Amino acid sequence: MKFPRFVLAGTQSGVGKTTISIGIMAAFKKRGLNVQPFKVGPDYIDPAFHSFVTKNKSRNLDSWMIKPNIIMSLFLKNSLCKDISIVEGVMGLYDGYGTKKDEGSTAHVSKIIQAPVILIVDGKGMSSSAAAQVLGYKLYDECVDIKGIIINNISGDSHYNLLKESIERDTKIKCVGYLRSNAHIALESRHLGLIPSVELKGLEKKIEEIAEMVEETIDLDALIMIANEAKSIEYQPPKVKEIVKNINIGVALDKSFNFYYEDNLDLLKDLGANLIYFSPIEDEDLPENLHGLYIGGGFPEVFAKELEKNIKMREKIKEAIKNGIPTYAECGGFMYLSKAITTLEDEKYEMVGIFDTEAKMTKRLQRFGYVHVNIEKPCAIAKEKNHVKAHEFHRSMIDENTQNEYVYVVDKIRNGEKIKTWKCGLKKYNALGAYAHIHFYSNTGIAKDFIENCMLYRDRSSEKNEK
Q1: Is-same-fold flag (5-228; 247-466)?
Q2: Contact predicate 386/443, CB 8 Å
Q3: Which among 230, 180, 243, 203 is positioned nearest to 383, based on CA atoms?
Q4: CA atoms of 26 and 105, how far apart (whole Å)
Q5: Which helix (H) or strand (E) holds 208?
Q6: How far is CA 12 from CA 90, 104, 167, 304, 419, in A?
Q7: CATH classification of 247-466, choosing from 1.10.3470.10, 3.20.20.70, 3.30.70.120, 3.40.50.880?
Q8: CA distances in angstroms from 182 to 26, 151, 185, 210, listed in the order given
Q9: Are strands 359-361 and 340-342 parallel, antiparallel or unpaired?
Q10: Using an 8 Å Cβ cutoff, are 18 and 26 in contact?
Q11: C-alpha distances in angstroms, 304 versus 280, 338, 360, 424?
């Protein structure tokens, strides 16, 4: 089958991948194309921009957390019936897990899905040196199919033509366009990267401006041609068997909690769960007839005042958890289930209060990067000991309390050696709160155990009601 596709990679972080990616997606959308976006790596924020632009849910392709055959399967499943698939890379083209270019890198994912690569170069302050840079990327791994170059931060046509001439002559790779330097189109950032799309006012207008710039100076027809020349692939649908019916899982979704891997939500649905969304900020009560709760990450510290103000919702969640509802709270969701959040301004806000701990924001990253999570005890997402690859990225920390029941032993491993180990994952009642972000396709048993725990809760609740 034909799956038109290409990967937008950068020479390094900060080269303009996200701006150029959403600009190209928006320009294709204006042409009437049905665009399927993807993001290499574990990031949540860039995919939200993709989804905003294309109106299709962006998906993460992380070759450290997920096996190559599953990455290919998820890529093809989500690309079906789409006109073109665009994959935004992470960091620089070859930056992966530690120093391994074939584990977690954009280059690795491009080889797994057999996609041509468009390399984005920062042209500021360069002429022929750009050709040397591109040649280095081409020769570093000749199995990576670099088919085109986009040059960012160009001063004008003459500057672009200077770089284009040397790159095409000395590397034999076609330049497909450029973007001029323009601070006005830069996307706003804060402590964990770009500010999420749900918080930005005037985003639609800014995207229109970026799309217009892309249409003016990037050869969209050349990109479509490159995408259409990608190899045909035989599609094998992923094998997911429905294991339950009539299970309702409440998923917290609003401006405070929106860090979810879309394929996680799909897997829960494929296994038979009904997902019912609610807002911890706007709603005063949980949806009726729930058998599980899933509270993802986000920025509860930014909206702590609004979360504290919604006393009714906090009380309803606390009551449901005390009654035994299986609950999985991840990172920001974990903070929400603590007693309180203290912001960088030293303002303290009361939260749900399930876990006997408090979350405090700090000025530096407390944990960052890939981790191995060893689940040592039965909990909401594991009926017995288990292991899953995960990712941590947070500036908050919780105060240690020896009375709390820890479920996780987390290992940071580099070059096959443990360099750090710590406890995380608090369990109380049937709730689990932890900082690690888990992609369920790293270990589908996590999703299955969570749903089966929800089923047990449903059945126990039915028996109580009958009595």
Answers
A1: yes
A2: yes
A3: 243
A4: 25
A5: helix 203-217
A6: 9, 15, 18, 34, 26
A7: 3.40.50.880
A8: 18, 13, 6, 10
A9: parallel
A10: no
A11: 11, 12, 12, 23
Confidence of residue 241 (pLDDT cuts 50, 70, 90): confident
> Token match 């997606």: residue?
25
331 is catalytic: yes
The pLDDT of residue 404: 86
The model's pLDDT over 372-407, given as tens digits with 9 standing for 90+, comes to 999 999 999 999 999 999 999 989 998 877 678 999
Distance of alpha carbon 47 from alpha carbon 59, whole angstroms: 7
User: pLDDT (tens digit, 9 = 90+) per residue, 305-357?
Assistant: 999 999 999 999 999 999 999 999 999 999 999 999 999 999 999 999 999 99
Backbone φ, ψ for residue 454 (5° rounding): -65, -40
Residue-wise pLDDT for 45-78, tens only, equals 999 999 999 999 999 999 999 999 999 999 999 9
Q: How far apart are CA 28 and CA 30, in angstroms?
A: 5
Cβ–Cβ under 8 Å, residues 297 and 330? yes
Six-digit token pair at 388? Answer: 């899953």
Which pLDDT tens digit goes with each residue over 277-289? 999 999 999 999 9
Q: Give CA–CA dist 411/421, Å, rounded.
A: 5
DSSP SS3 for 276:
strand
Find out whether 114 and 4 touch, Cβ atoms under 8 Å. Answer: no
Domain boundaries, the chain: 5-228, 247-466
Tokens describing residue 130:
């750009």
**Length of the chain (residues):** 467
- 5-228 belongs to which CATH class? alpha beta
From 175, 331, 424, 454, active-site residue: 331
If you average pLDDT over every residue of the chain, what do you get? 94
Residue type, 456: L
Residues 297 and 395 sit within 8 Å (Cβ to Cβ): no
The answer to whether 36 and 74 are in contact (CB under 8 A) is no
Task: For residues 270 and 233, give the distance between their C-alpha atoms in angstroms, rounded to a whole number.
Answer: 24
